[in-house]
Structures are given as structure tokens and as C-alpha cells.
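[Discussion] Sanity-checking designs against the backbone

I'm trying to build intuition for which residues belong where. Below is a C-alpha cell string of 106 positions. I'd appreciate it if someone posts a full sequence so I can compare it with mine line by line.
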């Protein structure tokens, strides 16, 4: 009887160890995926910041041609600049929301 009980606990231990290894592998893969996405988002924000600055520089120059097409292009640039700022603000707001619960605990 003691031998059967020993085999039962050995089997239970091996199943628990296998489950722990499986969960650990999945957690590491998930963490790597999150890290890669975070790096991609940071790179995208850097690109958005660069283009936002370039558009801002273009918009500060006076337009000497009074054509409606030129005015539409300048207007489109303004809207694009606002859209870039909106996207960047929304992405950084997600980071701030994720960090808020940690600040409440302290």
C-alpha cells in the first residue's frame, strides 16, 4: 500500500512539474512578445515625433501662392500634424493608464 502511495505522489509531482514548466515557457514567450511590441511602439513614436517636427517646420513657413490647391495641401498637412499628435498622445496615455495602479499601491 505504501508503494502505491509513493507512486501516486511521484506521478502527482511529475504532473505538477510538467505543468510548471509548460506555464513558464508560455509566460516567457508572452513576455518576449510584449517586449517586442513595446520596442516597435517606441520606434513608431520616434518616427511620428520626427514627422511631427518636420510638418511643424513646414507649416511655420508662409505660403506665397494663393492657389486653392496649395491651401488644401497646407490644410491637409495641419490635419496630418494633428492626427500624428493624437496618435502619439493616445499611445502614451495607454502607458500612463497601465502605470496608475502601481502608483496607487505605494
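Best answer:
Here's mine. Compare freely.
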Amino acid at each position: 500500500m505504501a508503494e502505491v502511495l509513493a507512486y501516486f505522489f511521484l506521478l502527482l509531482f511529475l504532473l505538477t512539474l510538467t505543468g510548471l514548466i509548460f506555464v513558464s515557457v508560455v509566460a516567457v514567450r508572452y513576455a518576449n512578445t510584449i517586449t517586442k511590441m513595446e520596442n516597435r511602439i517606441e520606434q513608431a513614436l520616434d518616427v511620428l515625433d520626427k514627422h511631427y517636427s518636420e510638418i511643424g517646420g513646414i507649416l511655420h513657413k508662409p505660403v506665397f501662392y494663393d492657389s486653392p490647391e496649395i491651401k488644401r495641401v497646407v490644410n491637409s498637412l495641419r490635419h496630418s500634424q494633428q492626427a500624428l499628435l493624437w496618435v502619439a498622445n493616445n499611445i502614451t496615455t495607454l502607458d500612463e493608464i497601465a502605470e496608475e495602479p502601481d502608483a496607487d499601491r505605494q
